[in-house]
Amino acid sequence: MQRISVIVPMYNEARHITRTLDSVIRAARAAAVDCELIVVDNGSTDRGPQQARERGAQVLLCPGISIGALRNRGAAVATGDCLAFLDADIEVPGNWLQLWQQTLEQQRAEVFALDCAAPESAPWFARAWQRRSLAAGGQARLLQWMPTPNLCLQRIWFERVGGFDEQLRTGEDKDFGLRLHAAGARQLSLPQPQVLHWGFEGSWGEWAGKERWRQGSHVQLLKGSGFNWRLLRFPLLCLACAALSALALLGLLLGRPGMAALCLLSGALAPLVLALRQGLRQRDPLFVLQLWLLHWVRLHLGAAALVQGLFNRSAVRPDRG
Fold this sequence. Notes:
Elements: E1 3-10, H1 17-31, E2 34-41, H2 48-54, E3 58-61, H3 67-77, E4 82-86, E5 90-91, H4 96-105, E6 111-117, H5 124-131, E7 141-143, E8 150-154, H6 155-161, H7 172-182, E9 187-197, H8 204-214, H9 218-225, H10 229-253, H11 257-279, H12 285-310
Parallel strand pairs: 1-2, 1-4, 2-3, 6-9
Antiparallel strand pairs: 4-8, 5-9, 6-8, 7-9
């Protein structure tokens, strides 16, 4: 790795961007690599762009475009033979780039990321939701796609798949990763050390708003991919769970508590299976119960987002108000 370009999309992240860039600078020094910082700003009204410039970053002003387009604009001006896509509220550990170097030298993968965790100061639901994606047993994983809080890859692979889909409002990271997988790129996720997500959801309303927005790309992904059972499974699960809840409510209104109870129990099975699949490996019963509740809420949010998407209406992006 001769030179790495770190691309950070940003919108009103003055609270976090200094911490993020400082952690990258420390990691670059520890790895002794030539590091180029590129911040792509989506129209911030705070001091984030100024703070980024003070840390030596090149700041591109690109208001009003999608998150995928922001990343592509950064990649278009990047000069590194490796690209790293980093969220503006992420703190990377000091050996982040050393681990990426080792991955390349050992030819373990073409794409690399560290697991992402919420700091201890985050509320329980934000920590539990972030924790669900962590690897069990400290094992490295080869995945079919990885999210983009801290995604490193060789530039040639970015160009081979044509970058991010700029038409997607959200889900662009999943689409990008699946195309990388189809092209033959190995995607390695390491469980330790972890990057820290400081832009955690501070309230239930914020968490729900972000989850509804994240689920808003299902219709777009399906339209772009044609019939794809892998992409279709979760939307169908959302609709089934919401339909059972609606039937339970109808049962109560009709004075049929048995019907209501049966529908509620049936609707709770899917989120329970999801919670057990993700939580049992952590060997923490309380964590499983937390996930059960969060998945139940998420499935209903997903159904609402899917219906909105079918009528060509999308949830407002949370970080844009």
